[in-house]
Amino acid sequence: EVQLVESGGGLVQPGRSMKLSCAASGFTFSNYGMAWVRQAPTKGLEWVATISYDGSSTYYRDSVKGRFTISRDNAKSTLYLQMNSLRSEDTATYYCTRDLPPFAYWGQGTLVTVSS
Amino acid sequence: DIVMTQSPSSLAVSAGETVTINCKSSQSLFGSVRQKNYLAWYQQKPGQSPKLLIYLASTRESGVPDRFIGSGSGTDFTLTISSVQAEDLANYYCQQYYDTPPTFGGGTKLELK
Asked: How far apart are CA B53 and CA B50, in angstroms?
């Protein structure tokens, strides 16, 4: 069974950093591209970033370019999202997803709240 | 970026009715190489993660009931739910993956009368 478990969310002040993790199991992690999708409270879904199966290619939405970094450790079957210079508009539940779109598997999400 | 526009934003129906949710893209999602439309539909129930229902505009994901039907091509797409059940109460999102960034529609909230 495919499982994606996010962690690392919480309350953070504007301008600070936070690193999210997503532990994957139930499939060969190194064979799949992965992505982060976020959802602001009571809002819709928004793709954040994608990484290829081997980490050689990464893609970001414009609003996070230069601030967020997606990475992976295939030996640990773990996906990461390093978020720097956080803004209030980054407040959202962040989901880890498997595959390039369409996203067939999602984690339960981790809430990031950016507030002073 | 490709803009995805869903309508209506909310919908109240009685159990057993058939509902239609529309999704329009700002440019064609039809890929000439594979002759497919790169459009997906997701269901998100309250407090849960999104669930993939339909991909390639009309292919049901494994385990999805056949009352969920995706149709359309080019820029205009539809999700039809026949004989709506109480368990279908959720938000529904369309998503294009023809181009990067993949973009979602604003969502349609399905409520039961």
From this structure: 9
Q: Which residues contact A64 (CB under 8 A, 6 or more apart)?
A: A48, A49, A83, A90
Tokens 């992976």 belong to: A72
Low-confidence ranges of chain B (pLDDT < 70): none
The label of the residue with tokens 């409270």 reads A41
Strand partners, B21: B79
Beta bridge partners of A69: A82
Confidence band of A99 (pLDDT split at 50, 70, 90): confident
Smallest Cα–Cα separation from B41: which of A92, A45, A93, A42?
Answer: A45
Interface test with A, best of B5, B9, B41, B49 (most A CBs within 10 A): B49
Is A50 within 8 Å of B97 when comparing Cβ atoms? no
For B88, phi then psi, to 5°, come to -85, 0
Chain B interface with A: residues with Cβ < 8 Å: 38, 40, 42, 44, 49-52, 55, 61, 93, 95, 97, 100-107
Digit-coded pLDDT (tens) for A28-38: 999 999 999 99
CB contact under 8 A, A106 and B100: no
- Tell me the nearest-neighbour CA distance from A13 into chain B, angstroms: 25
Tell me whether A104 touches chain B (CB under 8 Å).
Answer: yes
Q: What is the average pLDDT value for chain A, to the nearest integer? A: 97
